[in-house]
Amino acid sequence: MHDFVIIGSGVSGGRIADELTAGGATCILLEAGQAYDRRSFPPNEFRGSTALFWGGGIEVSKDARFGFIRGKCLGGTSVVNQADVDRFDDFAWDTWRDHTGIDFFNSGQMAEHYDLLDRNTAKGPIPLEHYNRNAKLFVESFNKCGYHWQPIIRAQDDCRHDQGSDCIVCLGGCPRDAKQSTLVQCIPKARERGMELEVEFEVDFVEDHQDHVRVMGRQRGMERSIVARKGVLAGGAFGNTRILKRSTSMAKDLPALGTAFCCHPQFMTFGAYDEPVDAHKGPLQSVQAHDDSLRRQGVKLENVFAGPIATAMLLPGFGREHHRLMRKFRYLTSIEYATMDEPLGKIEVTKSGKIIADKPLSASDKAKLKRGLEVTTELHHAAGAKEVIHCDQGFGLHLMGGCPIGLDAKTSVVNSDFQVHGHPNFFIADSSIFPRAPGLNPSFSIMALSVRASRHMLGKRPSERSIVAMGGAR
Ligand SMILES: Cc1cc2nc3c(=O)[nH]c(=O)nc-3n(C[C@H](O)[C@H](O)[C@H](O)COP(=O)(O)OP(=O)(O)OC[C@H]3O[C@@H](n4cnc5c(N)ncnc54)[C@H](O)[C@@H]3O)c2cc1C
Known about the structure:
By secondary structure, the protein is of the alpha/beta class. The chain has two domains: about 1-35 and about 85-120 and about 180-255 and about 400-474, 3-Layer(bba) Sandwich (FAD/NAD(P)-binding domain); about 40-70 and about 125-175 and about 265-395, Cholesterol Oxidase, domain 2. The protein is built from 15 helices and 21 strands. The strands form six sheets. Strands 1, 2, 6, 7, 8, 9, 20 and 21 form an eight-stranded mixed beta sheet that branches. A four-stranded antiparallel beta sheet has the order 13-14-11-17. Strands 3-4-18 form a three-stranded mixed beta sheet, with no helix packed on it. A hairpin with a 5-residue loop joins strand 3 and strand 4 (about 65-70). Helix 5 packs across helix 15. The longest helix has 20 residues, at about 365-380. The relative contact order is 0.20. The model is unreliable at about 465-474 (pLDDT under 50). Flavin-adenine dinucleotide binds near residues 8, 9, 239 and 398.
């Protein structure tokens, strides 16, 4: 019997697989999606959307107001995300600590986990000389309007920008293995240490049998069952909530299951210019807002662009008007605004297993979105855009909550040792445990929480440094 069965291979599952195998545990990793690598990633945006994401690209909220995006492939969303890595600031940790009463939610105690990741992850800013025009205009507009900005730190190795690489393709999987996804950084090492891997294995429900756990699912149409001493749920906000809701003997003890769903609702705004901008060329993103006032207002701004199919979906209008805007593709800049939303959403699962994600917006959420729109409009005009185009369709790329962490089993699902309340054989440390939206990019903190949780799984105290360094032979 394996020590651990890990469900999901994304930011958390892949990281935990690396940590547990390095700590000497035997593991089996189950992933619903297919395995691709740099040689086999789908060749274009359309095929990438259908092959690498749940729902064939997009799932929508109950009222279809928001589109939700999450990766479904070996490496999970770490393969298709933008790899921006932020440490949470005091504002985020204080909000979490005040809400949950969990003491280690503070910059000081989380620092050792971030530091470990810093030492073992290739990451850094895009060199100034490689900024594309989209990034340069972002910086210009911030300087003119008096907002503060900073270079984005991206978890990537050598993207070969000096050789003219266009990084937008990496949203469909990095063809250079530069992006530090779990597919590149964690899973190969865990495999070398003997971890078993099953892909195209979608878990339906789990059972806690006190001295072991059982995981039931389907692999390429065949029913499968896996037994291990302990289980790690790393299927993300939607994945974990769905599995636990369908695990009826556990769900009945978890009144908070499916609550606290939040997603950093985000909208794209475009500026149109007379000269080509070619925002799709070079590094995908280089800069983001770093402005205390915007942070306190719950508004997050990034310099990012989308491929032609995604841009066609984002741009408003129909027929001639849409055609007119699409013809401007090379002449567009874009700024994405996202908000630190209230965790009022709910994730439900129908009897047939369909996920229904309700994402209401509070008055305060709406005020933040209004502010985001105002600021981005101001910025586009300041940079000299001839036309500013707002997109009506909102998106959630940071799916969080559903299994919130906390001390009270009535209002949370996971305890401060990352165990499911009442079911200590099951651990969770991924985006589903977020009790609140941090208003910052989540994945670096998911990694840090996963490192910390792995120590609990291995029966070590969080401060024990027995897990040496990721990357080395241990
Ligand atoms: C396009 C995009 C860009 C993003 N850019 C950034 C960024 O730049 N910086 C940042 O910090 N965050 C970014 N994010 C968000 C970030 O990637 C996620 O918050 C993060 O990946 C969540 O980690 P996770 O481990 O919880 O889930 P995931 O990484 O999504 O992993 C969950 C895994 O579990 C698998 N799974 C789910 N259900 C089952 C099941 N029933 N059986 C088996 N397997 C299952 C999934 O297929 C998936 O592989 C981005 C997200 C998207 C969509």
